[in-house]
Amino acid sequence: MSDPAPLAVRGRVASDTEKHAAGPVAGSTDLLVCITCRTAGAPPTLLEDAPRTGAVLAQRLARAALPPGVRVVPVECLSNCNRGCTIALRGGDRWTYVYGDLNPDTDLDALIAGAARYHASKDGLVPWRERPEHFRKHCIARIPPLSSTQEVPHV
Question: Does residue 107 register a pLDDT over 50?
Answer without folding.
Answer: yes
